[in-house]
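thought: user wants a sequence for this fold. calling inverse folding tool.
action: design(structure=
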C-alpha cells in the first residue's frame, strides 16, 4: 500500500474515533438514565454531574450536553424529577 494511502487511512480512523468522544446529547443522557430511581443508579448511568446545587435535602444535578443540559432533582436518595433544556443565557 502506498504511504499516502496508508496516511489517509490512519487520519480517517483517528477522525472517526474522535467523533465518538464528544459530549452526549440531551436525548442520549435521558435515555441512559431512563428507569433510575436512586442517586447511586443515576451516577452509575451518567457519571459525575457537571454541577451540583444543594438546598437543604434537595439537590439539583446538572449534566451538560452538546445541545443543552439535563437536570435531575434528588430528594434524599430518590431521583424525583428530570428536565432537559437549553443552558441559561449569559
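)
observation: tool returned 90 residues.
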Amino acid at each position: 500500500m502506498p504511504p499516502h494511502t496508508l496516511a489517509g487511512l490512519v487520519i480517517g480512523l483517528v477522525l472517526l474515533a474522535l467523533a465518538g468522544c464528544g459530549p452526549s446529547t440531551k436525548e442520549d443522557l435521558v435515555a441512559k438514565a431512563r428507569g433510575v430511581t436512586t442517586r447511586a443508579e443515576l451516577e452509575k448511568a451518567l457519571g459525575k454531574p457537571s454541577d451540583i446545587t444543594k438546598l437543604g435535602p434537595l439537590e439539583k444535578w446538572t449534566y451538560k450536553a452538546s445541545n443543552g443540559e439535563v437536570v435531575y432533582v434528588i430528594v434524599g436518595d430518590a431521583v424525583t424529577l428530570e428536565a432537559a433544556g437549553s443552558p441559561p443565557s449569559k
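thought: summarizing for user.
answer: Here is the designed sequence. Strands lie at 51-55, 58-65, 68-75, 78-85.
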